[in-house]
User: Fold this.
Amino acid sequence: MFVVKTISLPVLAGAAAVLMALAIALIFFYAPTDPDQGLSQRIFYFHVPIALTAYAAFAWGAWKALLHLWKRPHGADLESYVAIHQGVIFGSLTLLTGSLWAKISWGVWWAWSDNQLVLFLVLFLFYCAYFMLRYSVDPGPARANMSAVYALFGVVLIPVSFLAIRLSRSFIHPVVFTSHGPQMTGTQFLTFCVSLAAMLALLATLYQLELAGKRLDAHLRELRELLA
Amino acid sequence: MLSARNLSKRFGVKRVFDRVDVSVVAGDFLLVTGPNGSGKTTLLRVLAGLAAPTGGELELPPRESIGYLGHEPLVYRELTPLENLQLFGRLYRVPERRERIGMLLERFGLWDVRHDRVGTFSRGMQQRLGLCRVLLHEPSLLVLDEPFNALDAAGAELLDETLTELSARALVVATHDPERVEHLATDRLAFA
Amino acid sequence: MNYLADVGALARKDLLLELRAKETVPAMLLFVLSTLTVFHFALPRGTGHVAALGLLWVALVFTALLGLTRAFVPEREQGLMDALVLAPADRSAIWLAKVLAVLAFLGLAEVVALPAFAAFFSGIDGRTVAAVALADVGICAVGTLTGAMAVAGRARELILPLLFLPLAIPVVVGGVGASAGAGGRYLGFLVLYDAVFGLLAWASFEYVVSET
Assistant:
């Protein structure tokens, strides 16, 4: 994402569009059809890249949060907030696609046995609380500091939760579905990688877009203030 | 001691103060005046190191040299004066705590009630205890927001004496009733 | 050492405040007993021991929440956080002192809750007690930090559960697993949780309470 700053927004958006088109083409026409699940298995090529992209967004948000607390560059708080906001959006999509896949594959709307999905639910709840925290405090250094600390807690929660969920399997859920994440063949791997690249490009575009919008808002407010 | 250049403070869109320059050294008495809600309290919080300014440069002495009295006396109501001062004495590493606490309580007329809960006090007595707390660690910079608040005539006189005695230190005092301390002031800052 | 003396003075203050006010601990005691009673009616006949244990953990987490919601009230209501933050003492001492105090309150509530659970439902073994003790540390560490965050904003009591519960999920997993006898690694996991989040909370509390 460090490259993102030097690339202008229209270029980024263009790249994302191209990658997305390519990914969709590959997913529906190039990748082999799964013998067991058929067409519905293709949702895997959306679900997992979206999930990984959400993680990337949360990690970027946590990095900006750490920077904010450590070196205090101006604007780090806003960048952290936007990254986490995007992470929650991609996170919701993860939950949605995961749920769809569970319905199509196993006939249930939710699968507790899917560790990845459960982890996302916990994180989703956590980061939604992040927004509640931001809304409950007036803008200022206090809110920025607290948000940053909470973002750091989030990133630590990811591995700890994952461990907890795996541990919980042994006494809560005896039923085990065959897990996804198959050993990928060459064509599958290519499709997966292109899809992942497309999602990351989409994240970068949306991130820059929202950031630009929020910065513009801030400038406008400052101008109004000066004129008042 | 304390120097501030081009200080500004905003809460979101609302601008509280702008382009404030302050310089205070030992022996100075900065009198900050202005009506309620004009931003005095916010400025004093910034000068005490409690809030960061939105813009400008600020140089402050270390925390152990600053004494701050806010709008509230900042004492625990469920504790006694003795317990309050012992706590802050510990946190501020005050040497010979017991003697100093006793001396302050006596001076401000609180020795007889030192074992009573602060919640039972009048607002004026709580203010006196707040003053004890501020003076406990002998700060070189005192930032006092409306220190005469709620004090009766005797208490106000005590404070007058105290402020005169402290003239060798650096003082920043906000009040909406400046005539009382006008004669002590070396500098003035007026909020509109 | 100065740091420990500060923590001691602050913890003593918190315990004194509760001793005088006598609000939080009685409320926690009554809450946990009422909750366990509700659970009796909520569990259908033939429910296993493990299900009941799960509900014990739910009761403990929510009782802790009750205590944590009150933890910073004196500081925020009387503006005293300013006075504590201004002192030259390390801000993390404020956190540690609060954690010790809330631990004490929670421990007191559990001294009543665990025997009550044993009487209402089924026995408590040593593993469960160990798990509760370890979980308490993590709950108080994380809860005190999020409590300070919650109390800084507008929605206070509303927001603390939202901030706290996702972080409490791993604790519940560790706790239920350990008390259900699913293996010593659950206790190990609780130790890991306590170490990781305790350290993070201790190091980051400074930033939660200072506006500069």
Q: What stands out?
A: Chain C touches chain B through 24 residues (CB under 8 Å). Chain C is about 85% helix and 0% strand. The radius of gyration of chain C is 17 Å. The mean pLDDT of chain C is 92.
